[in-house]
Amino acid sequence: MSIQTIGIIGCGLMGSGIVEVCARSGFNVLVGEMDGELLKAGLARVRKSIERGASRGKISPEEAEATLSRIQGVNSLQEFAAADLVIEAITEHLEPKHRVFRELDAILRPDVIIATNTSSISIAAIAAITRRPDRVLGMHFFNPVPVMQLLELVRSILTSDETLATAQEVGARLGKTTVVAKDSPGFIVNRLLIPYIIDAIKLYEAGLATKEDIDAGVKLGLAHPMGPLTLADLVGLDTTLAVADVLYGEYGEPRFKAPPLLRQMVTAGLLGRKSGRGFYDYK
Ligand code: CAA
Ligand code: NAD
C-alpha cells in the first residue's frame, strides 16, 4: 500500500515530534487533539522546533516552509478518513486509547493500519477493541523524536506480516532504525529503562546522594547523555508513573513498583519539563 497521508492523534510531547518527523520526510500529516486550544499549543510546538532547525541551518527556510505546509490540524476524528496510516500518541492509559481505536476503526478504510506509540500497554489489548487486529501494531518512537534514531516496532500475536513490513518501510522513510519486539509489556527498551529510573528515584528518596550527584554519576561515570532523574523529567513523571504501573500490574515484580516519591510528585503536578518542574526547575 502506498502511504502518503499519516494521521497523528495527540500532539503532546511525542505527537508533536512524530508530526515533525513525518512532515519532514515528505508525508502529508493530519493531527488531532482533545480540543482547539491544545491543538493550537501542539502545532505551535511543532512550528517552534522546525524553525529552530532552520535557524541552526539543519534545514533550509524553503524546506521548513514546505514541511509546515504539509501539516494540517483537524478538529474531529472523522477528518482522519483520508489517512493511509494513523499513529495514536495520546495519554498512557488503556481506556482513552480504546475510545480512540474504537472510533477510528469505524472511520478509517478497512486496509488502514492503526499504530500506537504506547510505552508499555499490550498491543493485543488495544487491538482487541477493533475489527482489524491484524492491522494494529506498536510504533514506539523515542523522545525527542526528531533526534532519537530508534523506532521500536511491536507486533502482537495477531499483527500480520504485511502490517509489520509496511511499518518497517515507513520507519525507513522516516530515517529511523527499526527493531522488532514481541508484545510483552515494556517491549525491549522500557523493560530495561523503567527499573533503572525507579532505582534512581529510590536512591534519591533514601538520601544516598543529591539529585545532581546521582545524575552526574551516571552521566560522567557511564557516559549517558543525561542522568536518570533528568531523563525522568524529560519523559514526563506522569508517563513514567503510568508505565511503571502497567509493568508492575503485568509482571508483579518489585523492580517495577513505583516509589512513593514518584506518585507524590505526579499528584502534586510536578510532571517534569512539560509542567515546568519535576526533579529540577525549568521555569
Ligand atoms: N527537537 C529537535 N532537535 C533537538 C531537540 C528537539 N526537541 N532536542 C535537542 N535537539 C537537537 C539539537 O538541535 C542538537 O542538534 P545539533 O547538535 O545537531 O545542533 C542536538 O539535538 C543536541 O541538543 P542540545 O545540544 O540542545 O542538547 P544535548 O546535547 O544535551 O542533547 C538530548 C539533548 C538529545 C535530549 C540528549 O540529552 C539525549 O539524547 N538524552 C537522552 C534522551 C533519551 O534517552 N531519550 C529516550 C527517552 S525514553 C523514551 O522515549 C521511551 C519511553 O517510552 C518513555
Ligand atoms: P503528553 O501528555 O505530552 O501528550 C499526550 C497528548 O494527548 C496530550 O496533549 C493530550 O491532550 C492528548 N490527548 C489525550 N487524549 C486525547 C484524545 N482522546 N484525542 C486526542 N488527543 C488526546 O504525553 P506524551 O509523552 O506525548 O505521551 C504520549 C504517548 O507516547 C503515551 O502513550 C506515552 O507512553 C508514549 N511515549 C512517551 C514517551 C515520552 O518520553 N514521553 C516516549 C515514547 C512513547
Overall description:
- The chain has 283 residues and is α/β, with parallel strands linked by helices.
- It contains eleven helices and eight strands.
- The chain has an eight-stranded mixed β-sheet, sandwiched between helices.
- Strand 6 (136-141) and strand 7 form a beta hairpin.
- Helix 1 (13-24) packs across helix 2.
- The N and C termini lie far apart (46 Å).
- The mean pLDDT is 97.
- The site of nicotinamide-adenine-dinucleotide (NAD) has 28 residues, from helix 1, helix 4 and strand 6.
Keywords:
283 residues; alpha/beta; 11 helices; 47% helix; globular; binds acetoacetyl-coenzyme A; binds nicotinamide-adenine-dinucleotide
First-last Cα distance: 46 Å
Bound molecules: acetoacetyl-coenzyme A, nicotinamide-adenine-dinucleotide
Q: Roughly what is the average pLDDT, rounded to an integer?
A: 97
Helix content: 40-55%
% residues in beta strands:
5-15%
The topology string of helices and strands comes to EHEHHEEHEHEEHEHHHHH
Q: Mind sketching the topology for me?
A:
Layout: E1 5-9, H1 13-24, E2 28-32, H2 36-55, H3 61-69, E3 71-74, E4 85-88, H4 94-107, E5 113-116, H5 123-127, E6 136-141, E7 150-155, H6 161-173, E8 177-182, H7 189-205, H8 211-222, H9 228-235, H10 237-251, H11 260-267
Parallel strand pairs: 1-2, 1-4, 2-3, 4-5, 5-6, 7-8
Antiparallel strand pairs: 6-7
Helix pairs in contact: 1-2, 2-3, 7-9, 7-10
Bound molecules: acetoacetyl-coenzyme A and nicotinamide-adenine-dinucleotide.
The site of acetoacetyl-coenzyme A has 15 residues, from helix 7 and helix 9.
